[in-house]
Design a protein that fits this description.
106 residues, mainly alpha
């Protein structure tokens, strides 16, 4: 398959992903109105979609096979790291909320 067809497919997929990355962008722009876990998860979502968009560039440039693979690998690691951090923050926030409920009952 031609790398140009792959680049076109990646660009179309990125454009159709606005259902996910536009709300994530809104969560990030809200700032301190959103919990840290939600902002971190939104950053992970945006990183994943930006990786997909960045993947189209080496495909269009008809670079060596390892260049798009490296872009995808770096983006996947960054996205996974942000998602794990968001999960850790969410767990911590849930524990804090539970502690507040216990103290409110007292």
């Amino acid at each position: 398959m031609s790398p140009y067809v792959l680049a076109l497919g990646v660009a179309a997929l990125t454009a159709s992903g606005c259902v996910w990355y536009l709300p994530a962008l809104a969560d990030l722009r809200a700032g301190d109105d959103r919990p840290v876990s939600l902002r971190t998860a939104a950053a992970g979502c945006l990183t994943g979609w930006a990786t997909l968009a960045a993947l189209a560039l080496p495909l269009l440039a008809d670079a060596a096979w390892w260049v798009p693979c490296a872009v995808a690998a770096v983006g996947a690691v960054a996205t996974a790291t942000l998602r794990v951090r968001a999960r850790v923050h969410r767990k911590r926030e849930a524990a804090e909320q539970e502690e507040l409920r216990r103290w409110a009952a007292v």
